[in-house]
Structures are given as C-alpha cells and as structure tokens.
Amino acid sequence: MRPLLEQTYALRLAASLHSRLPRPTTNRQPGRRERFPPRFWFGGEGGFRCPKARVTPPPNPSLLELAAVVGEDNARNLVRTFLRDFPSALGALPLAERKTQHRLIHSMKSSTRVVGASDFSQKLAGLEAKLAEASLPDLTSAEIQHLVVEFEAIATPLREFVGT
Prior knowledge:
Largest sheet: none
Number of strands: 0
Structural class: mainly alpha
Order of helices and strands: HHHHHHH
Helix content: 55-70%
C-alpha cells in the first residue's frame, strides 16, 4: 500500500510542477488554447531542448581557491572585471607620469596576483620597485610592450573561464 501512496504523491507533485513550467510562445489565434504534448517540455523527440552551458573550470589553483571562497559566479565576475580594466591601465602607462605609472603598476600587480598570474605579478613587482626608486629610469616602451604580450598570454585561459 505504501508504494501506491508514494506513487500517487509523486504524480501529484509532477502535475503541479508541470503546470508551473514556462510555456513557449507561439503565433496562436486569440481565444484558442493550444496544448503541447509532454514530450515538448521534456526534450522528447521534436521537443524543446535547452542548450547546455559550457562550463570551464578555473584555470589555476588561485582562482580555484577563490571560487571555493566567494563562489564560482563571483570569481567569474572578478575575472571579467580584470579582463575589462587591465587593458585600459596598460594603455594609460605610456603617457602617465612616473607617480601615476607606479600607482597603476601597483594595482595591476595586485590584480594579476588575485587572478592567479603569479609570474606576471612578480614581474610587475619588479617594475613597481624600479618606479619607486627615483634614481632608476622610467618605464621604456619595450617594457610596456612586454607587459601587453604577457597580458595576452594570461588572458586566453581567463577568457575561456568566463566564456568570452
């Protein structure tokens, strides 16, 4: 008797959930109600299928750890922000004064460390130290171009992670 009650409950639950499912939009005539077979809703033959989202795991241990703490969606948003803002900071470097270059490099160093590009972060730390020392020369265009190349190298797996 118990399995029959469980089956009845399951059928009632399924029926109530089915009535709450979103309906497809069609070009139907006013006042005429169209009925769609259940296979339409559940992806049967000829039915509607939702595209499967491509989920790429975090590309490095730092992002994996970050995703575990703040959630994968928040980690992806952080990476999107990094990918959006970093190129503009790179573009501002050649025309900026030394003090502004130092501030930009410091911010870029911290950002790259957060997204898991530790080697790139260490290179930026070296440039930050160079800019902090007044007796050393300013950044050269070759150093800035090298930063652009390095950024593109780390950006590829990050873009895959966020799906862009």
